[in-house]
């Protein structure tokens, strides 16, 4: 297995609940250390780790919901449709509905379809689908 150079590790309240959520979205369980309540997941090249809260973990302050305040984790996928379908099937609410955005990056306009959802602990996930790009200066 090849590991990305940046892998977010999220402290979660209940590992089973979080695994159910992420696997319903299509994340693959790469490995789990049940004795440590740690899991490593991937989706189309994105990787993340989940670790169930414990008092001796890397906790810099008391955890209060929603976890991860001040950050959203963008995950690009080939097609956001199946993710939306999985959330809808489970009646899981979106934080922000699907939108199309075109953003300037230097002289290019880059398009994405995206939506945001909070995981069971409130981490904000932004799933995006690449739409293409064009020269913004033409």
Describe this structure in words.
It is built from 2 helices and 8 strands. Helices cover 14% and strands 44% of the residues. The model has no long low-confidence stretch (mean pLDDT 94). The protein is globular, with a radius of gyration of 16 Å. By secondary structure, the protein is mostly beta strands. The longest helix has 10 residues, at 15-24. β7 (108-118) and β8 form a beta hairpin. The strands form 2 sheets. A 4-stranded mixed sheet has the order 1-4-3-2, covered by helices on one side.
| Discrete helix count | 2
Strands of the widest sheet, in order across it, are 1-4-3-2
| Main β sheet profile | 4 strands, mixed
Distance between the termini: 43 Å
Order of helices and strands: EHEEEEHEEE
Helix content: 10-25%
Please indicate the percent range of residues in DSSP E strands (runs of 2 or more). 35-45%
What is the structural class?
A: mainly beta
CA-based gyration radius: 16 Å
> Would you count the extended β strands for me?
8
Mean pLDDT: 94
Low-confidence stretches: none
List strands and helices in order, with pairings.
Blueprint: E1 9-12, H1 15-24, E2 28-33, E3 38-43, E4 46-52, E5 72-76, H2 81-89, E6 96-105, E7 108-118, E8 124-135
